[in-house]
Amino acid sequence: MTTFPDTPAFTGFNTPSRVEADVQDLNVVGEIPKEMHGAFYRVQPEHQYPPKLGDDIAFNGDGMISMFRFRDGRVDFTQRWAKTDKWKLENAAGKALFGAYRNPLTDDDSVKGKIRGTANTNAYIHGGRLYALKEDSPALVMDPVTLETRGYTDFDGKMKGETFTAHPKTDPATGNLCGFGYASKGILTRDMTYYEISPEGELLYDVWFETPYYCMMHDFAITPDYALFSVMPMTSSWERLEAGKPHFGFDTSLPTYLAVMPRKPGTTADDIRWFKGGNCFTAHVMNAHQDGSKLVLDLPVAANNMMPFFPDINDAPFDPVAGSTYLTRWTVDLNQNEEEYRSERLSDMIGEFPRIDDRFAGTRNRYGWMVVIDPSQPVELKGGSAGGWVMNTLGFVDLETGEEQKWWAGPVSSIQEPCFVPRSPDAAEGDGWIVMVCNRLETRSSDLLIFEATNIAKGPIATINIPVRLRFGLHGNWADASQIKALDQAA
Ligand code: V55
Ligand code: FE
């Protein structure tokens, strides 16, 4: 019998949905730009079965991939499970076999040594392939048109590490997929790897190095010549796992580091420069660029932990004010003999899930978009279970002029990560649209909204009603039809 727990992670807007679907021609209010020809992919964590240990965190759900296919002003919807090895083993057993998030000590004996990944964090397109990604395991390859799962890849045996990030970047100059892994020699190891993969899917080179302490290395940044990593004290140990504590805990006694690694074959750990900073929390990055000998990294930073489900290692209570993230600029000058990075706040909006026009990854971007918490707006979540602060606002920053815009989703709605869609492959930066899932917490439904990218304040120009109940989601990406041959042909 399947009975999901009556806990916040599985009730209200988070009630399990588990629907694979094909729906043609979704209902649209407003007008979808005819130039939008391609697909928006996004992923949400969904538990296939009730959690083995009675309750769980959303980050441990199985990946469910949604595809919104755009052509001629119409939108089709397809949704499929990312069928990881874990999903298949549990499906065959008819129940959960894997236990807590990144704690193999809690697994059923029958799955010892199996890949624990859930492919629940990002849906990423590169070289015409769709990757469903979870940072504790290799990349899962899926068909970008049918969403059928092909399986994990080790890039023809060339990826020697055990993991591949959920936040790779595509270098617009070379077309290479730039990615990394942490815990590369096994869970809790300090070993990291950097990988570069050609548009044809060939792993070109890797770089191995160690971080000063084991940490959640969730995202990174590239520039034409460097890869930049933020080491922050969301850490773990075998003692934590043996005690059955959440995998990650936040250690306010540790410094942070900005690692700068030359992006070229033959780089070794000795070539990496480590710049120190004070204790703080980081997760996602907006972008980075080179300015002469200076390197500039823009990322949301909080004074303390922003993830209540990964608590303070000394059990200090969660502090939502100290856990508020603000877009921040870290700078280092490679020509100076500096030991610390400089830090300066760029915006007073509480923002996370930063995005850019990805064609400017690694170069100086003018525009950025974020999910913003605006505590000045009223919240009445009738029927919603979301506690605490609500991600209620889409934010926009113009880093050249300092202009900011906000669009508030209303008192009973919250939003998921925005994604930029260029008007055409060679359009100017920011010339295009934002697509974004909006959670209707009261009716437990979802809409996909479309905004003019540099005029979000005026509100959506189209609202696409999603006829399937979605849940909170994580990351997604747009692929122009020309990036996926089969999408282009099946017109
Ligand atoms: C993050 C998300 C994850 C994860 C580790 O946002 C870090 C950060 C959805 O899964 O496993
Ligand atoms: Fe992420």
What this model shows, in words?
This protein is mainly beta and 491 residues long. It has a domain at 167-356. It is 4% helix and 38% strand. The protein has 3 helices and 33 strands. The strands form 7 sheets. Strands 20, 21, 22, 23, 24, 25, 26 and 27 form an 8-stranded antiparallel beta sheet that branches. Strands 2, 28, 29, 30, 31 and 32 form a 6-stranded antiparallel beta sheet that branches. A hairpin with a 5-residue loop joins strand 12 and strand 13. The longest helix is centred in the N-terminal third of the chain and has 9 residues, at 85-93. The protein starts with 20 loop residues before the first strand and ends with a helix. 48% of the residues are buried. The mean pLDDT is 96. The structure holds 4-hydroxy-3-methoxybenzaldehyde and fe (iii) ion. The site of fe (iii) ion has 7 residues, from loops.
Q: Biggest β-sheet: count, sense, barrel?
A: 8 strands, antiparallel
Q: Report the radius of gyration as a whole number of Å.
A: 21 Å
Count of separate DSSP helical elements? 3
Helix fraction, binned, reads: under 10%
From the helix content, strand content and strand pairing, which structural class follows? mainly beta
Average predicted local confidence, pLDDT? 96
